Structure formats: structure tokens, C-alpha cells
Amino acid sequence: MRIRKFKKRAGPAFLLMFLLAFPAQATHNRAGEITYKQISDLTFEVTVTTFTYTLSKADRPNLDIEWGDNSITNVARVSETFLPNNYKKNVYVSQHTYPGPGVYKIVVQDPNRNYGVENIPNSVNVVFSIYTILIVNNSIGRNSTPELLNPPYDKAALGHIFIHNPAAFDPDGDSLSYKLTVCTREDGKPILNYVNPPYSNAFYVDSISGDLVWDAPTALGIYNVAMEIQEWRGGVKIGVVIRDMQIEVYDTDNNPPETSPLPDLCVEVGETVSLEITASDIDGDSLALLATSGILTPTTCPASFTTISSVPGLTRARLEWVPCHSSVRHQPYDIIVKAEDYNADLQLVDIDNMNIKVLGPSPVLTEAVPQGKFVRLAWESYGTDEIAGFSIYRHEGASTLTVDSCYDGIPPTAEFIKVGYAPGYDAVSFTDTDNGDGLETGIEYAYRIVAVYPNGTESKPSNEQITALITGVPLITNVSIRTTDPVNGSLTLAWQKPRQLDTIPAAGPYEYLIYRARGIAGSDYQLIQTLPTADLNDTVFIDTLINTLDYGWIYKIELYNNTAGNRFLIGDPGIASSLFLEALPGDRKVRFVINRNVPWINTSYDFYRFNGTGWDPVGSTNQLTFTDDNLENGTEYCYYAVSAGEYQGAGTPKNLINFSQQTCAVPVDNEPPCPPDLTVYSECDSLYNMVRWSVDDPVCYEDIAGYNLFYKATTEENLNLLITFNDRDVFKYVHALPDYVAGCYAISAFDDNGNESERSMMICVDSCNFYEIPNVFTPNGDDFNDWLVAKTSALVEKVEFRLFNRAGVLVFSTTEPKLNWDGTYKGKVVPTGVYYYDCEVFERRITGLEQFHLNGFVHVLTEKGAGPGVVEGKK
User: Fold this and answer.
1) For residues 105 and 90, what is the distance between their CA atoms, to the nearest angstrom?
2) Which of 278, 313, 628, 688 could potentially form a cystine with 736 if both were Cys, beta carbons 3.0 to 4.6 Å apart?
3) DSSP H helical segments within 798-869, as ranges?
4) How far apart, in whole angstroms, are the C-alpha atoms of residue 758 and residue 182?
5) Which residues have a Cβ under 8 Å from the Cβ of 717 and sit 6 or more positions away?
């Protein structure tokens, strides 16, 4: 039982000193955090939440967000909520597009922390800052931070254990871990001489549950602590959120309430969770039971937490939930339950948590049927369109796997291997071909499948189906093409005479039933011949009037004991297919894919090509592909292949020779050249980009006729054709631009037949910064340097420039990029002195209109004869 009590950009030094001189007006920050949602590959919506002291006159309708890529945005507050105990919740929301992949530290800082924080020396003069680590990495997929559902402020009781949980809910289902860290000051740096609050036994964060445990406070007062919440996906850390929270310690004689023990649960989709939870209080105080969890807020199948009854000293509530398929994820859901009393002296709290893991139900695997060297699986419809497909797993021999009610997928210890994936929610079958190589005879195979959800989570495993490849009685030895024709094709089907039938009470006569199906993996068998035989010596059948040009064929032979009154099937049927070639014409070549489904092992495939009068051998392979190259485009070539193979084991047929169909193809240049290698660099002063490319492979170079160069000005646009070069010996292009050099480039090559390569890797270059503000300015009426004028370019669309005197008075502001200030304030030239400026610059960049921040000083000299200014700016 867990019991607890209760619930920058920095300005110049003279401005900071001015603020610190009036703590009642400038100190107010108590707690906060930064979270984000990913909108697109490079764009994020960031939410800054702060909690401030309402009795302070300081308020922040706007805050600066430092994005971690050398840019800052001044963001307006979108909501404020006044809370008990002089707290106010402030929310600021802004979107930002990053220039590319990377690790970015988002920082918000604001003077200052509230007065009297016991574990932060001189807290009233310490800048309040919070930060979040954002990782842009498309290879891990899109990511949003966890939502922290419990607020970052609480109350503790002197001498009593205190527990706080942020109730972190990750919408992506990522794993979370927790640890203590240090509260931060300006620029997100650790506070000097910061210490943890004083405790009698322990002060720590549970890395798994996220419970902040203070056992127990030994001194009254206000304390700030920071918790680091880490996101993990596939064992890789993908983000960090820092929560800075405030805890007030009070002295009280009240006793805290107690909640009933909470179990961790594992449930399948559609099962009902109905859990009664009670809270009691020995002082007889009235109680409230509250729950916080991500399962209470979704738009589909939300859970409910309802008070059943409440009398002084005892409250009962019920958690109810019927999870749906959209609830399935690898990580369990956290539910934080809080019991709070209504004591007149001081309210006390007991907090506890539980987990509920939601699993997809087990699919029902109905059959695993051998088909030659393949196995065809079938299963029942899963009954929902909220899955992506099914993963298929295989194990040699029967497994010992027992389905765990709390484990999604098949555990590695079960030693299954994944052999395939059937896409689509409506998939109900899969054929295991072992990547086209075929499975081995004499081995039992066990199969299980799992449903795969869009977030990658697998369901509980299906039941197990076990099968073995059928060698067959009789053993088929030949399915060999005799004649290639779309109508009058024929082939030879042969088999070995069955042996050792004396071990079976089958005295004969016998009967062969021959079945045929189209395709080497066909299953729609049709009976084509019945062969009665007394001595089993009939072992050859010629199949005619079939299309051997366009299709391969698979055969099944059943052997029956045909004794009157005692007819039965002897053994398992023999199954084997013909050898079928797929010819794929290419540039000066023909590629072949070899298809077969046979119970024996083929050790070689010999290819023959027609020379006009006869057939020449052109090569041999033991693989399932073959290429005949150095051909002439536009000329027809015809081929056939001969396979050689044998059954495994003593006494089985050897030296099995089978012919494929004859097939013809015309080589054609349908293959694109290889893409060039691209480089780009910018000449900012001259406003052009130098684009260069190269082709290192001489064979590829010979195939190239020209190049297409593509360009886009910003990352959000699509690449468009910039220019075409109909000369393969052109390797550079100077791209002159009117006012900025930002952009992304890619290039492709094409040949004389119009085949175009893939585009090269896209290369992006950003604009150079052109904005600078002088640091000396002499408005003395001598017509020389009398105006404060910024050095700018057409890239800068506007600025937000503000200039202050030493007293902090705003003396000039403008949105004009050139500034054009004449040195006057209220119609008079300002006195000689040092003035501080703060400037937001809005500039067109590769990511669109970007904002960056400048600040610094301008020395204003009004005496006659003052010298020229030195151009300087600080970004």
C-alpha cells in the first residue's frame, strides 16, 4: 500500500538586475513541462505548460521557445486556468519545422522562480527553465511525447511518506522509464548547489512505475524537484521530457485515507473489466476516489470510473472497461487511483497505481495442408478491419509453447521462426514456400499465426497445426514437357512402381487416380484419368491437349486397393509439378525465373537456346534464376531448360531428368541507367548554387543519353523538373537565384529509349544569413551615419525590432527589415549611451519562413565628429 499526505532568451545584465530588484513583480514560476506532437516528418506542435504564483504581479502573456536549431519563437498564451492554493496553469502552443534529422533540445526559460524554495539557494533570483529532448529520425517512425495527466504540484505532510505519480500516458504505446534529475536555470543548465529535499529514509523515483517517493519529509516549506521521463522504442531512446514540480510540506494531525489493493490485469479485446475499489479513513472524513489514465479519454471504447457509494469514512467506486481492437498495444495502460479526504485541517491523499494490458485474441488456424514441397495454411476470419495483417511462424516438430495470457506474440524462447506475412485484415490463407526453395521431406512442421495491429503489436498466438510433406505413394519421378503449345501441349507423367505393399493387407487389384491442377502451386485438382492395374506395372501417363506454353501443371496420383468390398486409399498421394520457366527480357539479356514444386531435390538446371537449326547449351545453374546476356536487342531468342535431381535416402529414385516448356523472349532496353552521384554547394555572395554530378561506372555511363535535374525551394514542396540535359558529358549546372539560395536538388539519368533511373539522393542547402545590425550609430546631423540601418536582403520579410534604454524604456520599435531609425524618441534625439535591442527576424529558408533571434547593444553617439559604426550582430 502506498500512502502519502496531500496532494530565454536572457536580456542584458542591467535588465535582469532591474527585474530582480522587484521580486514581488518578477518571481512567479512554480512548475512546468514541455510536450509535443509530431505533425509531419519535420513539423512538430509543441505545448509549454507552466504553473505560476497568482499573488505575484508578474505575468507572461508570451514566452520564448528556443527550438534547439538556433531559432526562437515568441509564443502567445492560449489558455490560463486559476487553481486553488494560488496556482495558475498557463498553456502556450506553437508549431515548428526542423531543417532535418537530428537531436534538438527545446528550452523555455523565464525569470524567475518563486520566493522561498528551500532546496534552491536564493530561488527568487534563479531563472526558471524547463526542457525537452526531441529526436527527428524518420527511421523510427513518428513520435509524440507522453501526456502527463497529473499536475506538477502537490502537498506533503511532515514525517509521512509522500508519493506523486505524473500519470504519464504515451499515445504511441512506447515504453517509458523514469529517473530523478536536477532542476535547471538559464539555458537549461543545472542549478548550482541544488540539493534534493531532506528525508528521513529515502528519496527516489521508481524507474518502472514513475512513482516519486519521499520517505519522509523532515522539514516544512516549499521544494522543487525534477523528474526525467524517457521514451523507448525497440530498445532505443527516442525522447526525453523533464517535469519540474513543486511540493509544499505541512504539519498536520490528520491521518491519510487508505485504498484497497489494486491488481494488475491482462485482458483480451471484448472482455469486460469490472473492478470495485474502496477507500477508507480512520478519522471518519468524507472521501473522494479519483482515477487518472489514458483509457478514460479515448474517442473509442473509453473506460469509466464511477462512485458507487460514499459515506463518511468509506467510499466505493467501480472501474469498468471493455477494450476494443484500437486499444491493443505492446505496453500496458497505467491507471492512477487517488483517495482524498476532506479534513478541515488539511486534506490528505493515498495514491496507488495498477496496469491493464490489452491483447488481441488468438486467431484460429484451421489447417496446414502439404502441397508438394509447400504447405498451405488457412484460418478463420479475424472479425475486424482494425488489423494490418498476419505474421506466420514455423517450428520444426511440435512445440511446447503454452499461450501466456499476458504475452503478445510468440516469445523467442519458443524457437519459432517467422516465415512470412499475409497483408490485409481479410487475409485467410498463406502458402509457405520457404522463400521459393521448398520445404524438406521427412520433417514435421508446426505452424502458428498472430494478427498484427497497425502499431506493430502482435496478438496472442493461434492454436498449433502440425503437418509433414508427403513423399507419396507412388513416388512421382517425371513431369516432363514433351510438346510446347497453347492448345496441343503434352507432357510425360511417370512414377516409380510402389513397393512393399505386402506389408499392407492390399492384395489388389489396384487403381491409379490421376488429378491435375493448373499452376505449380495449384490446389483446384480435377480427376483426369483412372488407370486400373493388376500388377502396378503401369507407371507412365501421357497428358495431352493442355496449354504448356503459358502455364505449369501440378499432378496428384492416388493409389487405391480396388478389391471388391475392400476399396481404400494406400498411403498418401504423390504430388509433383512440371518445370516452368518465366522469361523476363532486359537490356541485351533475358532473365529466367525457375518454378517447380517437386518432392525430390533438383541439383542443376541446364539451359539451351535455339540457333535456327538446333539447340545450343548456354549455361547451367543450381539456383532458381538464370540470365543469358550479351544478346542483341530486338532479336527473338527461344529456350528450354532441363533439370537433374534425385530423391534423398537409400532406395529412392535417382537421376531424374525433366524438361521445361520452350519459351521465347525479345531483349529490349527496358532498364534505366544507374543514378548519378550528386553534390551541391552554395555561393551566398553571388546568389547561386553549384550543382555537380558524376557517373563512376563506365558501363552505366555508356547507357546514358542525358540527365534530368530536379529542384524545390523548401522542404515542404515537391521536387519539380528544373532542367534537362541531352548530353551525357554535362556534369555541372550553375543555378542562379534572384534573392536566396535555399533549395533541394536531385538528379536522374535517362537513356535513348526513354528509360529513366531512380533519382539520386536528395541534397538540400539552406540560405545564408544576411541580416546584421550595426553596433555604433551617430545621429548628430552631419549626414554621415545618421540613421540606424540594418544590412539585409530580400530573404528577410519582416522583423520585430525593439530598442530599450538603460531604464528598460522602449524607445523604438519597427517591423521594417532595414530599421531606418533616426535616433529620436518622442521627437527628440536620444542621449548618448548604450541601448539594448531585441530582434526577431523572419527569413525565408529551406523550411519556409523561419524565425531567428538577435540581441545586442547599439552605442548611440550624438556628439559632432563621432566616427562610423562597426557592423556587428549576435545570433
Assistant:
1) 21
2) 688
3) none
4) 50
5) none
The identity of residue 432, as a single letter, is: D
The residues with which 368 forms a beta bridge, in sequence order, are 377
Record the cell numbers describing residue 483, joined without a space.
510438346
What is the pLDDT at residue 865? Answer: 57
Contact 363, 380 (CB under 8 A): yes
SS3 792: coil
pLDDT of 746 above 90: yes
Closest listed residue to residue 394, CA positions, set 466, 456, 460: 466
Q: What φ, ψ does residue 703 adopt, rounded to 5°?
A: -85, -10
**Cα–Cα distance measured from residue 579 to residue 481, given in angstroms and rounded to the nearest whole number:** 8
Q: Which helix (H) or strand (E) holds 290?
A: strand 287-293
How many helices (H) and strands (E) in the chain? 3, 63
Check if the beta carbon of residue 7 is closer than 8 Å to that of residue 350. no
Contact between 780 and 861 (Cβ < 8 Å)? yes
Q: What is the pLDDT of residue 440?
A: 81
Q: Could you tell me where the beta strands, DSSP code E, fall in 39-116? A: 43-53, 62-66, 72-83, 87-97, 102-110
The set of residues, in sequence order, having a beta carbon less than 8 Å from that of 413 and lying 6+ positions away, is none
The Cα–Cα gap between 218 and 304 comes to: 38
Residue 612 CB burial class (10 angstroms; 0-12, 13-18, ≥19): exposed
Cβ-contact 358, 333 below 8 angstroms: yes
For β-strands 848-860 and 776-777, DSSP reports them as parallel
Q: What is the pTM of this model?
A: 0.55
Q: By CB neighbour count within 10 A (0-12 exposed, 13-18 middle, 19+ buried), where does 761 fall?
A: exposed
Contact between 770 and 796 under an 8 Å Cβ cutoff? The reply is yes
Query: 23 — phi, psi (to 5°)?
Result: -60, -30
User: Which SS3 state, helix, strand or coil, does residue 334 take?
Assistant: strand
